[in-house]
Amino acid sequence: MMLKENQIKWVDMMKMIVEANPDLETTNRPKQRWRQIVHEFITGNNFKHNYFDYFVMSCIILNMILLAVVYDDSSQTYNNVLDSINFFFTLVFAIECILKLLAFGPSYFENSWNVFDFFVVCSSAIDIILDQMNSVSLKFLRVGPQLARILRVLRISRLFRLLNKYKGLQALIQTIQFSLPALFNVFALLMLIYFIFSILATFLFKSITEGEIINDANNFNNFGMSMLILIRISTGEDWN
User: Fold this and answer.
1) Contacts of 108 (CB under 8 A, 6+ apart)
2) Which of 20, 124, 208, 223 has its Cβ near the most Cβ atoms within 10 Å?
3) Start and end residues for every CATH 1.20.120.350 domain found in the chain
4) Nearest to 28 by CA among 44, 42, 41, 39
5) Between the CA atoms of 88, 94, 96 and 101, what dihedral angle is there, to the nearest 10 degrees?
6) Strand runs (DSSP E) across the chain, as ranges?
7) What is the CATH number of domain 5-165?
8) pLDDT at residue 192, as a whole number
9) In angstroms, rounded to a whole number, what is the distance separating the alpha carbons of residues 201 and 220?
10) Distances (CA, A) of 81 to 77, 132, 133, 199
C-alpha cells in the first residue's frame, strides 16, 4: 500500500518476467540441416501460415466429431469404419509427435502441452493395441475392455490443445479464472441464505405433516428436506 504507481508497475513487470516461459520450440533451432527442414515445416517460419498446425487442428476437430457419432447397437461394419478412421487420426497425431521430437529435441518435453500431447498419443496407441487383442486368457488382459474405455475417453482431452492455439479462447479462460473468487463469494452468500431460511422453515413448518402438497416426500421435518425444497423452489422446479 505504500508503493507508488510507478513502483507497482515495476513490481508487476518483474513478476511477469519471473513467471514467463521461454519459447524454446522456435528459438532453439537444431544444427543439422535435415532437422532444420523439419523444424521449419513444423513451426511454419518460412511460410505465410502454419499449414501443418492448421492440418493438425482440423484433425483434432474431426476426431472429436468421430467420437460423437458413436451410438449403441451400431452395426459391426459401421464400427469397423469408425475404427479405421480413428486409426488414421491416431497415426497423424503419432507422426506429429515424432516430427516435433526430431525438430525440437529434448526441449520438446519442456513444454507442458507437448507432454500432454505425448501422453494422449501413447494412450491412443495402447487403446488400438487392446482393440486388436482377441485373446483374454491371460489374467492381465481381462481388464482390457475397461482400460480401453478409459483410454478412449482420454482422446476427448485433445480439445484442450485448441486453448493453446487460439488467443480468444485463452482470454475467455483467463476471464473465468479471474472471476472464480467473486463467484465463490456469491455462492457462499447464496448458501448462507439457504441455510438461514432452511432453519426457519424447519422450526416454523415442521409440525405440518400432511396436506395437499406436504407429504412424506415434500416436508420440512428436518434441515435437509427444507434445504432441498428451498433449492428446488429457487430454481423454478415444480415440487408438487
Assistant:
1) 25, 100, 101, 114, 118
2) 124
3) 5-165
4) 39
5) -170
6) none
7) 1.20.120.350
8) 92
9) 6
10) 6, 15, 18, 59
Match 408438487 to its residue by C-alpha cell: 240
- Do the beta carbons of residue 79 and residue 88 sit within 8 Å? no
What angle, 0 to 180 degrees and rounded to 10, lies between the N-to-C axes of helices 112-132 and 76-104? 140
The CA distance from 11 to 21, in Å, is 18
pLDDT, tens digit, for every residue of 123-140?
A: 888 777 776 665 444 455
Tens-level pLDDT at each residue, the chain (240 residues): 677 888 888 888 888 777 666 666 666 677 788 888 887 888 776 666 678 888 888 888 888 888 788 887 888 888 888 888 888 888 888 898 898 888 888 888 877 778 888 888 888 887 777 766 654 444 555 555 555 566 666 667 777 776 666 667 777 777 887 788 888 888 899 899 989 988 888 888 877 767 777 777 777 888 888 888 888 877 776 655
Closest by CA to 220, choosing from 232, 196, 204, 236, is 204
SS3 137: coil
pTM > 0.85? no
All 3 cell numbers of residue 122? 501413447
What type of residue sits at position 101? Answer: L
In order of 87, 113, 128, the CA distances from 94 in angstroms are 10, 15, 13
Phi and psi at residue 50, to the nearest 5°: -85, 85
Instruction: Indicate the burial class of 50 (C-beta count within 10 angstroms; 0-12, 13-18, 19 or more).
Output: middle
